[in-house]
Each structure stands twice: as C-alpha cells, then as structure tokens.
C-alpha cells in the first residue's frame, strides 16, 4: 500500500519528522550552548533551574514590580549573595557581598552600564548616567566641579525657600492621612528647576509644571519597559500606545530644556557684550592653596561614612576657594562651553541637564518620603531628631544655614539609616567587557555578562548590620561605622561612577526634612513589615507613602 502525498497519513508522518528534526536541532543547540565557556562558567554559580533557550526569563513574565521584588528576595534567600540567572542566553549575575561589589564598582574598567539603560537613551541621550568611555570621562570631569561645595552652599537659600513653601502647601493635610510622596516629588522638581536650570519660581510658567509631570510619567514608561517583557523589543514598543505617549512627553521635556538653554545662552552673550561675566568653573577649580582643605568641623558625618571610596567629589572640595555667586548647573555648563574651558555642544548640555533632572528627582523624593514614614512609625527616634533641632533653632522659625546642617548629626544618621533600609536605587547594573574574578569562591564572571548589584540586599547583610531589618540610626555612630566594610553601604553607588549629586542630595535632604519636622510631627500607623515595596526604577512603596501630620507647638519668629 502506498501513501499519497495528499493523504492525512502522509501529513501526519511529515509533521512527526519535522517535529523530531526541530527537537533534535534545538537539543543539539542546547548541548552545544551548555558546553560553551560562558555556560560552563555561569553554571558554576548557584541559581534557579533554567529552561532551554528561555533560561529563567519565564519566571519573570507577568510579574508586577512588587511581585518581582519578592521573587528576587526569595531567590537570594535560597541561593545566597551570588546568584546567576539566564535571560535567554544572557548571563546575569546578582551580587550582594561587599567584597565582590568592590571588585566591580572600584574598577576603572567595568564602567559600562547594562544594556537595559538604553531605554533612557531617547530621553537622556548620552548624558552622564549612560555614556561611557572617553565621553563619560570628559563629561564627568566637567560636571563633578559644578557640584563643588561652594556651589552647593549657594543653593541653601533655594532649598530653604522651597522647604518653607512645601510646609505651607502641606498645611491643609493636617489631621488627614495622605501620600507625602506627592509633596516631596513636587518640591524636588521645583528645586531642581531652579538649581539645575536656573528657572526660578517667579519665571516659571505652566511649562515648569508640565515638565515636572512629564518627567514623572517618563520614569513610569521606562519602568514599564523593564518589567513588561514585550516592550523591551524596540520593534514592538514602537507599535504600542506607550511609544506615542513617550513621544509627547519627550516633546515637553526637550522643548523646555532647549528653550531654557537658548534663552540662557542669549542672556550670557548679552551680558558678555556688556562686560558682565559670571565666575568661571576654572576659577572654582584654581585653588590658591591645595592644602586649603575643608576644616574638620565642617565635615559631615557622611563625609566620614563615604571616605572609604573617596571619589572626585572629595577632590573638588579640597579646592575650596570661598563662596561664589549662585549659578545653576546649566549656567556653569554654558559658561564653560563659551569660554572654551570645555568642549561641549548645546545638545550635550541638554543631555546633561536632562540627566540631572532625572537623577536628582525621584531619588530624593523617595528618600525623603521614606524618612518621614519611618519617623512616623518610630516616634522615639523622631523625638530625638526634634530635640536636636530644638537645640539648634530653639523656638525660632528662622531659615537653616549651612553651619546648622553640620550640627544635624542625629538627623544625618536617620537619613543614612533610611537610605540603608530603603535605598532609592535598589539595583545597579554593569555590562562586563572583560572577564572578572570575584572574591566569593573565586568565581570567574565571563565578559559579555551583566552584573546586577543588589543594594537593598547588600544593606541588610547580618554580617555587617546586627539587626539588619531594624531601623536604628545608631548603625551610623562612628564606633559602628569605623570597622564596617565600605562597600556594605552604597546608596550612592561608589567608585568612579558614584553619584555626582551625593553632597547636593544630603544637604537638600537635611534642609527639607529639618524644616518639615520643625513644623510638623509625622505619624504613621503602618509598620514596616506591612510596607509593600516596588522597584519602580526607584524603590518606592506600592501602597503609597501614607502619613498623618500634626502641627508642632507654635514658633515665634526671630
Ligand atoms: C538620595 C538621593 C540620591 C541617590 C540615592 C542617588 C543614587 C545614585 C546612584 C546609586 C547612582 C549610580 C547609578 C548607576 O550606576 O546605575 C547615581 C548616579 C548619578 N546621580 Fe544620583 N542619587 C541621588 C541624588 C542625585 C541628585 C540630587 C543628583 C543631581 C542633582 C544626582 C545625579 C546623578 C548623576 C548625574 C549620576 C550619574 C553619575 C555617573 O555615572 O557618572 N543624583 N545616583
């Protein structure tokens, strides 16, 4: 009996053979893959069982941001502080041991960001956060000095005015339960518009508000591209409604940055023609005396905490040349481009301003919101903070000075501890261009893999913090920090690519929080065990930062 090539029997056999051939092909591919160097090295590291071709990617699909955090925590409980995962054929290694983290972050070689940062590219271009190589080096060298302590001191007034304004805005909330992040986010953008772009409250029109909203929504889109697996593919993303939304938002964001840069440049040139020239970056960097370091009593607690990975920010401050007129970061960049100290084009300036606006926004908004919630829970710690503030200010409601911030030692410990337990940037990711050997078990991580540093997990290592899940500002008493591994505390990352805004952020947080806490007591009825966290690029509470505020006793103006 013959089987005709039209018959159902023939089709059945054909399908069977095709399926067998495909399975054999996939199996051979899988076996070949597994024997490759990358797989051999990767599979030495513990991690969940991977499915052929997909690796571990299927377990992440469909997870919401808070479920994703829980999953990551579950695997770190099972496999420890070095865990591998396969994203298809891509090796991802999660690190949470300070010794291993130091190998990566302290290196001048492993400075490339992971491919996921490309989602920021349409917004931030080749700004400091994502650029690499020579471009990153030269821009970092140019931008780090704009965060010089003298420039920061000149922002104290802006921080104070905005802190006062948010206290006023929060007044109608007295006695109610509300999400304090809304307020922290708003005030942070206002401060950034002023300090990064030089747009003051008076000169801000509707576009400032639209810009702030657009920044917040763009963060959300980038986050969606991280956890909605299909949106990772540019071809699919470009067909989605999210892409259309992104285009609209970028028009708003880039529209304002371009407009401001254009105006500022025109003003600079007009002034220059009149002989009015602002102080130059070069002036700031030309220290009359290299030994003129900041006196010890003007060093903050965090200067000590972060001294282990001394970065270019410290070098800046040693070149202290006295207080200067206030200039926004943008003014400084325009000035340095115009006087040809630095080669930077208008579009590169735009990328750097957009980067600062992004990096400086939700990080501090989330950081300050966590502090207010934690103090709302731990009333005895809030009492200590208030006692310290009362010692500094008495009953006066005068503005905070830079020197006052140096005296806020306990508040600083509270901020550092809050950043330990709830680091606004919960993961830092790098792409490895070369093999690297880490300390744990001498594992060799092959070039081409992605390293993910889990700040959240690292900061809760019982080897370095006695009761890691307990909110205890005393973790930052000098006697407790001096023998701790420096890389066990990296809320601002560390090494050459550390956060350039660290000192700015800490100064702003102290002024903002002290002003709020002098006016209100915060109260929270939700204990930390019930916080529902989500890594929305920035770590936040999925359940909202809900607190109540009660007015402090009436103060008298001096
Ligand atoms: C509590 C507040 C902040 C936290 C926790 C924080 C944390 C971080 C972290 C962890 C990184 C490294 C990111 C990575 O490698 O993926 C970073 C980079 C950066 N941050 Fe911050 N940041 C804060 C505030 C700020 C502020 C206020 C600014 C600017 C005004 C700023 C500007 C930057 C910039 C430009 C970079 C890129 C630096 C480079 O790659 O050279 N940050 N920040």
From TrEMBL:
<keyword id="KW-0408">Iron</keyword>
<dbReference type="GO" id="GO:0020037">
    <property type="term" value="F:heme binding"/>
</dbReference>
<dbReference type="InterPro" id="IPR017972">
    <property type="entry name" value="Cyt_P450_CS"/>
</dbReference>
<keyword id="KW-0560">Oxidoreductase</keyword>
<protein>
    <recommendedName>
        <fullName>Cytochrome P450</fullName>
    </recommendedName>
</protein>
<dbReference type="GO" id="GO:0005506">
    <property type="term" value="F:iron ion binding"/>
</dbReference>
<comment type="similarity">
    <text>Belongs to the cytochrome P450 family.</text>
</comment>
<dbReference type="InterPro" id="IPR036396">
    <property type="entry name" value="Cyt_P450_sf"/>
</dbReference>
<dbReference type="GO" id="GO:0004497">
    <property type="term" value="F:monooxygenase activity"/>
</dbReference>
<keyword id="KW-0472">Membrane</keyword>
<feature type="transmembrane region" description="Helical">
    <location>
        <begin position="14"/>
        <end position="32"/>
    </location>
</feature>
<keyword id="KW-0349">Heme</keyword>
<keyword id="KW-1133">Transmembrane helix</keyword>
<keyword id="KW-0503">Monooxygenase</keyword>
<keyword id="KW-0479">Metal-binding</keyword>
<dbReference type="InterPro" id="IPR001128">
    <property type="entry name" value="Cyt_P450"/>
</dbReference>
<keyword id="KW-0812">Transmembrane</keyword>
<dbReference type="InterPro" id="IPR002401">
    <property type="entry name" value="Cyt_P450_E_grp-I"/>
</dbReference>
<dbReference type="InterPro" id="IPR050196">
    <property type="entry name" value="Cytochrome_P450_Monoox"/>
</dbReference>
<dbReference type="GO" id="GO:0016705">
    <property type="term" value="F:oxidoreductase activity, acting on paired donors, with incorporation or reduction of molecular oxygen"/>
</dbReference>
<dbReference type="Pfam" id="PF00067">
    <property type="entry name" value="p450"/>
</dbReference>
<feature type="binding site" description="axial binding residue">
    <location>
        <position position="499"/>
    </location>
    <ligand>
        <name>heme</name>
    </ligand>
</feature>
């Amino acid at each position: 009996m013959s089987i005709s090539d039209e018959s159902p029997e023939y089709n059945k056999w054909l399908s069977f053979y095709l399926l067998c051939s495909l399975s054999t092909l996939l199996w051979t591919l899988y076996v070949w893959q597994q024997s490759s160097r990358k797989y051999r090295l990767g599979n030495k590291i513990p991690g969940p069982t991977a499915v052929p071709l997909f690796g571990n990617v299927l377990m992440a699909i469909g997870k919401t941001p808070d479920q994703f955090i829980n999953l990551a925590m579950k695997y770190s409980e099972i496999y420890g502080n070095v865990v591998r995962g396969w994203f298809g054929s891509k090796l991802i290694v999660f690190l949470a041991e300070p010794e291993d983290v130091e190998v990566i972050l302290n290196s001048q070689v492993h400075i490339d960001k992971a491919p996921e940062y490309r989602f920021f590219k349409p917004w931030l271009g080749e700004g400091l956060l994502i650029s690499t190589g020579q471009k990153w080096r030269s821009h970092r060298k140019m931008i780090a000095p704009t965060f010089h302590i003298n420039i920061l001191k000149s922002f104290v007034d802006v921080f104070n005015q905005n802190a006062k304004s948010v206290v006023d805005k929060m007044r109608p909330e007295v006695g109610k339960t509300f999400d304090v992040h809304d307020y922290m986010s708003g005030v942070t953008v206002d401060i950034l518009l002023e300090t990064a772009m030089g747009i003051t409250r008076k000169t801000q029109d509707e576009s400032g508000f639209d810009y702030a909203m657009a920044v917040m929504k763009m963060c959300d889109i980038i986050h969606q591209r991280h956890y909605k697996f299909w949106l990772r593919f540019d071809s699919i993303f470009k067909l989605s409604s999210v892409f259309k939304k992104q285009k609209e938002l970028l028009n708003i964001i880039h529209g304002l940055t371009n407009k401001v840069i254009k105006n500022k440049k025109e003003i600079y040139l007009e002034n220059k023609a009149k002989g009015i020239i602002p102080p130059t970056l070069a002036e700031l960097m030309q220290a009359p005396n290299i030994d003129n370091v900041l006196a010890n009593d003007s060093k903050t607690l965090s200067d000590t905490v972060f001294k282990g990975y001394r970065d270019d920010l410290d070098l800046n401050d040693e070149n202290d040349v006295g207080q200067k007129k206030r200039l926004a970061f943008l003014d400084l960049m325009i000035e340095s481009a115009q006087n040809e100290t630095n080669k930077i084009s208008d579009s590169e300036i735009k990328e750097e301003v957009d980067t600062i606006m992004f990096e400086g926004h939700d990080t501090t908004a989330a950081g300050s919101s966590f502090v207010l919630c934690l103090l709302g829970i731990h009333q005895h710690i809030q009492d200590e903070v208030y006692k310290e503030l009362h010692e500094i200010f008495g009953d006066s409601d005068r503005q905070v000075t830079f020197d006052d911030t140096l005296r806020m030692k306990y508040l600083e410990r509270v901020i550092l501890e809050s950043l330990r337990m709830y680091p606004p940037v919960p993961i830092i990711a790098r792409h490895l261009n070369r093999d690297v050997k880490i300390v744990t078990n001498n594992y060799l991580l092959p070039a081409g893999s992605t390293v993910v540093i889990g700040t959240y997990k690292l900061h809760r290592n019982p080897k370095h913090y006695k009761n890691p899940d307990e909110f205890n500002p005393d973790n930052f008493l000098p006697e407790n920090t001096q023998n701790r591994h420096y890389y066990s505390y990296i809320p601002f990352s560390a090494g050459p690519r550390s956060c350039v805004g660290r000192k700015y952020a800490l100064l702003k947080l102290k002024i903002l929080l002290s002003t709020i806490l002098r006016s209100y007591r915060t109260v929270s009825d939700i204990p930390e065990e019930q916080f529902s966290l989500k890594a929305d690029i920035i770590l936040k509470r999925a359940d909202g930062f809900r607190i109540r505020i009660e007015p402090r006793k009436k103060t008298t103006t001096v």
